[in-house]
Amino acid sequence: MRRLAVCCAVALLATLLSGCPFESKVPLGTAEHSIIDARLLGYWVWDDPASKEESSLFTVWSFNEREYYVELSNGDKEPTRLRAYSVDVDGQAFLNINELSADRRPRTFNLARYSFLDGGKLSLSIVGDKGVPQSLASDAQKLAEYLKSHMNDRALYDEDSPAVLRRPAPQEVEKGRLRGK
After folding, report:
1. What is the enclosing helix (H) or strand (E) of 83?
2. Which of 20, 131, 143, 152 minimizes the number of CB atoms within 10 Å of its CB?
3. Cα separations (Å) of 56 from 10, 45, 142?
């Protein structure tokens, strides 16, 4: 259960999705060439399409000039804390995401393609574990080549991707939490 929660949260949404994200032992690239996309910073809300009463809050901060610090809050549970940075794969922005935890488990990376939609919404497509051969989990170059050649293949992504996030309405976030949650 912990693995599923971590994998899913790391994809910024996958705890909210039904599939399981692909876990890579290596990132797609290094943070050295990443830059902060200021459009990602701030609060984002994911509203569960299956339940109008279930929403989660994603808070994205710039950790440094190349990486993001992300918290996923869902109700009264302890937030999931993540590190993320972007890489370009054939002109598309992908996030390398991994959980920040105190248990010192070996790090794995989850991957999410992101883009912005009309109206300022954020679209996240989580790379799913059924869409990528596990043999690519330790070869960043071959993994990037695979993503490039399968970029528009729906089978590459988690079955509920893309997830669409919105900016919260004024007064919807209070003290870093969704009001009423």
Report:
1. strand 80-89
2. 152
3. 14, 6, 34
- Residue 141: which H helix or E strand, with range? helix 140-149
Tally of CA atoms within 13 A in the half-sphere of 82 that contains its CB: 30
Residue type, 47: D
Report d(CA 111, CA 103) in Å as an integer: 22
Cβ pair 133, 146 in contact under 8 A: yes
Rounded Cα distance between 24 and 1, Å, is 19
Tell me how many degrees the CA angle 65-167-56 measures, rounded to the nearest 5. Answer: 95
Residue 11, pLDDT score: 40
Q: What is the pTM of this model?
A: 0.85
Q: Check: CB of residue 146 under 8 Å from CB of residue 139.
A: no
Predicted local confidence at residue 19, as pLDDT = 65
Instruction: Check whether 116 has a pLDDT greater than 90.
Output: yes
Residue 108 tokens read as 């794995």
